[in-house]
Amino acid sequence: MSTLKVMIGRDEIRSKTKELAARISEDYKDKDLLMVCVLKGGFMFMADLAREMTIDVNLDFISCSSYGSATVSSGVVRILKDIDYDITGKHILIVEDLIDTGLTLKYLKDLFAAKGCASVKVCTILDKPSRRRVVMEPDYEGIIIPDAFVVGYGLDYAEKYRNLPDVCIVCDD
Ligand code: IMP
Ligand code: MG
């Protein structure tokens, strides 16, 4: 059996999301913004962030996996589903659930930059800066969490718990 302990509750997530959406809406009010969600983990944050935006935006989705075990990133990123848009001249905001080692985002930022977008920035709802293996500062940072494996609000453990509305720690009994 395992039990779940709430680490970050839905109310805190909601208020941080509103704050981030207000800042992003202001910063991009005169720009063509394409928000790119990193699937699957980013789906819930993307949905909440997008509906708090007060400017017109385009939405797209990318899916990638890093080789390695379930809980440790290897640094080798594989694209499983690419974005649909031609991003030439577009301002990209990558929307992530959590930055851990930073390897996935470093790869994606370099990929979009190489495809000729006007700019590429990063927004994450959760951040574990103590786990970084490469330099990766989110432009819009949500909530900093300690080095623990978390689930819920899009995040999974072996594809379970993504639908939980709070960010939780799994405790084995
Ligand atoms: P990174 O490349 O190591 O920064 O992390 C890539 C992705 O791994 C994150 O965006 C999450 O989707 C996933 N991940 C990292 N830490 C956790 C965790 O504690 N729980 C669930 N997924 C995680
Ligand atoms: Mg992710």
Textual characterization of the structure:
This protein has 173 residues and is of the alpha/beta class. It has one domain (10-148): Rossmann fold. The protein is 23% helix and 34% strand. It has helices spanning 10-27, 43-52, 103-114, and strands at 2-8, 33-39, 58-66, 77-81, 91-99, 119-127, 140-144, 150-151, 167-172. The longest helix has 18 residues, at 10-27. The chain is globular, with a radius of gyration of 16 Å. It starts with a strand and ends with a strand. The structure holds inosinic acid and magnesium ion (MG).
Parts with pLDDT < 50 across at least 5 consecutive residues: none
Extended strand count: 9
Overall shape: it is globular
Name the hetero compounds present: inosinic acid, magnesium ion
H and E string: EHEHEEEHEEEE
User: On the 0-100 scale, what is the average pLDDT?
Assistant: 93
What's the alpha carbon Rg, rounded to whole Å?
16 Å
Major beta sheet summary: 6 strands, mixed
CATH second-level architecture: 3-Layer(aba) Sandwich
CATH fold-level assignment:
Rossmann fold
What is the count of structural domains?
Answer: 1
Q: Return the CATH class.
A: Alpha Beta
How large is the share of residues in beta strands?
A: 25-35%
Q: How many separate helices?
A: 3
Task: Report the structural category.
Answer: alpha/beta
Q: Give the terminus-to-terminus CA distance.
A: 6 Å
Helix content: 10-25%
Assembly classification: single chain
Strand order of the largest sheet: 4-3-2-5-6-7
Main attributes?
173 residues; alpha/beta; Rossmann fold; 6-stranded mixed beta sheet; 3 helices; 9 strands; 23% helix; globular; binds inosinic acid; binds magnesium ion
